[in-house]
Amino acid sequence: MVSVRVATDDDLDRWNRIVGRSPQGTLFHEYEALCVLAEHAGARLHPLIGYKGQEPVGLFPVFSLRKGPITTAFSPPPHLRVPSLGPAYCNLEKLKQRKREKRRERFAEGCFEWIDDELSPKYVHVRTATGFADARSFTWSGYDVTPEYTYHVDVTPEPETLLSRFSSDARRNVTNTPEDAYEIDEGDRDAIDAIVEQVAARYAAQNVSFDVPADFVVDLYDRIEGGYVRPYVCRVDGEFVGGILAIEFGDTIGRWMGGVRTDRDVDVPVNDLLDWTIMRDAHERGLSTYDLVGADNQRINRYKSKFNPDLAEYYAIERGSWGMQTLAHLYNTVK
Known about the structure:
This protein is α+β, with helices and mostly antiparallel strands.
């Protein structure tokens, strides 16, 4: 039997260690990050944890939002463009397939029962991490499960080998741009403000809503303990022309926000150079993967695919009546 409960103080003391051991664990699963998410989403955090005896089985951070008489549940919460969250399992790799599936299913059932009994949500939306390979427990419990995709670049090869795998135009952009024509470095809080402001302006120009406050990213930058928010900035003649907010956890760094088309008139391939710098730095720090965060937008994929990435799958999961599924517009997240 697997028991599920809201994490106690003792559970929270070990929460981040469990996240670090889980194949599905991400920077946003860390407890400090979850608190930041709740604060900026105006949501209530329910950090669910499951045990088989004394051994932890998994974590499932759930956020509830109430609009009038209607309660909804999310993981991650809407509006903040967090790429993934959902359940994170642990201590399952050592088990044989039958026991692994049974324990995973019992944990999921316990979480579903808690959500229904304590929240009674009219709508539920979950987006998993790429390490989440089996969503059948959700399907069997009446959830709609849709596969979605992102791109992963293996950054373990030496830079020369990695560069040789890029498309010809990406290689030219990196190798034919004089090094004294630009400057790229990892910035601080001011860099976060500049990147978020540029992204918001680009989205506004396309009539796309972008509600992510820079304060949210700064809070993550200041408060997370086991990962990093790395704001990479590109300058030409000392002027900010573009940037990428990268998130690093474990052996992976992700292209979270930024990398939009620059509005400056510069003859420099800003985003190619930013991505290349992040990949090269990741290799030097001993990381294995650069997650390009999303592979579902055909137009943007033309850019991302030139780095010769591998396709990785994750899941968007929802449940609700037909009428309540109109609330899905609240969950317009990174694509």
